[in-house]
User: Fold L-cystine uptake protein TcyP from Loigolactobacillus bifermentans DSM 20003.
Amino acid sequence: MTQNITIVILLVIAAIILGITVYLHRKGFSFTKLVFGSLVVGIVFGLVIQLLYGNDSAITTKTIDWLNIVGSGYVALLQTLITPLIAVSLIGAFTRLSDVANLRKIGVTVLATLLLTTAVAALFGVLSVFAFHLQGAHFASGTSADAASLAVIKQHQSVLKGVTLPQQIISFFPTNIFADLAGTRATSTIAVVIFSVVTGIAYLGLRKTEPEIAQQVAKGINVLDRLVHGIIKLVLALTPYGIFALITKAAATDSIKSIAQLGIFIVAAYVALIAVLLMHTVILLANHVNPVRYYKKVWPALIFAFTSRTSAGTLPLNLKIQTESLGIDTAIANFAGSFGLTIGQNGCAGVYPAMVATIIAPTVGIHVFSASFLFSLIAIVTLSSFGSAGVGGGATFTTLMVLGTLNLPVAVMAVVIAIDPIIDMARTAINVNDSILAGLVAAKATNTLDTKVLNDDSNLVANTL
Assistant:
């Protein structure tokens, strides 16, 4: 009875916090402040629960189980909208393309930026492992994977079991677009991207031969785009509440002891991710873009990505910032934003897989300082970055692809996955920043960047939803 009363009290406190958030939202508090505030309050509330009752007690488990209705419900809504959003955004990019001659240059520049930065990000991941002497996984001695972590690994392994790298690449292609729109496969996202590109190219052909019909198609796509973005806006308005529930769960159930034991890995990962952000800054300088102005404008998208851990859910804000604050053409923004969800994610598909592989390799006798290993690893990581999912946990699938290709065991990964949400927040922010950066570089390369919009400090995207 006492246990049930405690659970009810904790849930009432959570309800009060959510109620205060609703009140502040209605009073017009900025979206970014609400999200960041929910993050901080969720961490504090979750840690209090863990310190008082433990991370795996019945009280903690049942309280989080009820609170998870808010968090998991929010994530489920986001995941439902990912593939329709990608499809309408990418096909819409073709319908809005005014100069078809720039299509190849836009595509090549966006893909080159995403993939080359991923290759460098992988190198930073390797160097961070070396700098912190993590190779060989000695830092994980004395720790063991919990049942939940092992279940996640086994679930992903079952999908990849016996699949070679060429077969993985084949799996990127759609066989049933309706099934992929429903997200039934781990590679559904990249399949939708490929289908959307093919559809867009078909539209361009139709625009030449039957312009009237093409115009009707463009209007239809525009209607779908407006509808999907309207739904997205409703879902994004729930973000502060979803973030509070998700962060509370992580803070309450992620063992403080495990975080302390694996703290060196967290620090090494963040150092590598900061190095990637510095690389992005160098690219901005090379393109004569003021980094301070740039980060001031993209901050809302980065903080949203950090707290929500979903690149896909950040896409509407990503596109809004690219077009309204940075002066990037709508078509280019849609290309960069959509491709950035599934290709060359610097954090999830670059830094993280490279770090895990470099940590594990010495345990099976591989000399990680050899040029052959480094070259093979970076090449495989870059290639495997195709098809990475833009939702929380996508890095696990990509990393298992890399480990499987290199014939490396996954035992250490099952240990570090326990603290994955902490690292995933920064990984996601880096992913989103790279997709925005790819749009900016492509706009500069095609001479379509509106510098007046870019240099106008008054056109910050509104932080209210």
About this structure: The chain has a mean pLDDT of 85. The domain at 2-455 is CATH 1.10.3860.10 (Proton glutamate symport protein). The chain is about 75% helix and 0% strand. The CA atoms of residues 4 and 59 lie 8 Å apart.
